[in-house]
Amino acid sequence: MAEKEVLSYPGLDKVAGEEFLQEAFQIMLEEGVRKGMDVSEKVCDWKEPEELEQILDLHLKDTGETKTRLLERCRDIIRYSVKTCHPRFFNQLFSGLDPHALAGRMITEMLNTSQYTYEIAPVFVLMEEVVLKKLRELIGWKEGDGTFCPGGSISNMYAMNVARYHCFPDCKQKGNWALPKLAAFTSYECHYSIQKGAAFLGIGTDNIYLVAVDEKGKMIPEDLEKQISRAKSEKAFPFFVNATCGTTVLGAFDPLHAIADVCARHKIWLHVDAAWGGSALISQRHRHLLDGIERADSVAWNPHKMLMTGLQCSAFLLRDSSGLLQRCHCAKATYLFQNDKFYNMDYDRGDQTIQCGRKIDCFKLWLMWKANGTGGLEERVDRAFAFTRYLTDEIKKRKGFQLVVEPEFINLCFWYVPPGLQGQEGCTDYYARLGKVAPIIKERMMKKGSMMVSYQPHGNRVNFFRQVVTNPAVTREDLDFFLDEIEQLGKDL
């Protein structure tokens, strides 16, 4: 067919495409949502990599496949994926499924727009400002700035970059060559993104001063003071302190008021990584855990975790309202940010980020918030704390279960000591053997498909389980099953 004739007709079969979408959505609803949230179904249908590759036939080919075959593939992909919305999925700091947030994610995928200019995303430009303002108000700021980022790690990197620019605006043009040796401070319990951010920005991981923590994993402000003095004696310029609210493993909250006092004395930027613990701000009962966060210069907060907004939804929030974020990152590309547009250019916020194309992360949170209200989200947070209190009490009653620390947040860290190790604490190989228990039980539960929970070593502590429950679909029956299943899977160890 001649080229002119080809261009006379659409290159897509819209009717066939719509039929495929209708059937694909039905599969998503049946296999992903209904079965994914059904406690009688497996959390994971485990297959070894070689077997799974054969089942899925992942190779890309020269010719397309039929609708029937493609729908079969959609079904298989859901079947062999981990069901993070399952009531017995406890493996990550996110779980569960909010239907309104899911609808928001699907709508933004369908619209396929980018959050950089008002002309291409008018609704979402306005919406993002509303959502960010609400998050800032919960922190305690009347003014400020911010943006949504592709993950909490990037939010922490933004904080480090903005803090550096705030101290040395010339760094944007002249680079690190024009700067003194910079020093950043964070605790031993910080998220690994602080080290990654320092490496990415050219600050260097050797220039991160690690601050000691107490037995609960909280930063010790007196040691922060010592580390700052040490950095100054080594001719470094202290520019950035990272405090953590909700450490990844133990769930500790750093003492923000005391840390803010240190930062104020030394005139150092204070960033709070509240990616995990920030959602406690919504709860009147638990927001005291973040007392002092209003004194921070910047905050990272991930609603996709405790609030169940869905990946990804990560906010970087800034107390500054002078346009610091824009000045730090803008490049003024004229093909996007023309100066002679017919509307107010202040609504084109895309130049304040390090990205060009940026997904719409505000809508799923906005729609979920509209559906539940702040009160409904508060109940969700309080329920997560109630889950942890219940499990903590049950663990204390059961033989063979031992807390690593008394939980402050919703991270429940514990060892399971199987019958074969009970009473053997005095043996020289006790801890070596105990460290092997969690990995074996984890393997058994995954191959059985009954549940998922994470484990890790921590400092001089051997492997222990870290259980986190955020999914409001979970009931007391699921929590009892969790403890019973660990006992069952480890009874012969």
TrEMBL record:
Give any Gene Ontology cellular component. cytoplasm
Provide any one GO MF term from the record. pyridoxal phosphate binding
Note the SUPFAM superfamilies from the entry. PLP-dependent transferases
Q: Which residues carry this modification: N6-(pyridoxal phosphate)lysine?
A: 305
Question: Which PROSITE patterns has this protein been placed in?
Answer: DDC_GAD_HDC_YDC
Q: Which cofactor does it need?
A: pyridoxal 5'-phosphate
- Please name the InterPro entries in this protein's record: PyrdxlP-dep_de-COase, PyrdxlP-dep_Trfase, PyrdxlP-dep_Trfase_major, Pyridoxal-P_BS
What is one GO biological process annotated to this record? carboxylic acid metabolic process
Task: Name the domain of life.
Answer: Eukaryota
- List the keywords (alphabetical): Decarboxylase, Lyase, Pyridoxal phosphate
UniProt keyword Lyase present = yes
What does the subunit comment say?
Homodimer.
Which protein family is named in the record?
Belongs to the group II decarboxylase family.
What is the designated name of this protein? Cysteine sulfinic acid decarboxylase
Source organism per UniProt: Salvator merianae (Argentine black and white tegu)
User: Which lineage is the organism of this entry classified under, starting from the top rank?
Assistant: Eukaryota, Metazoa, Chordata, Craniata, Vertebrata
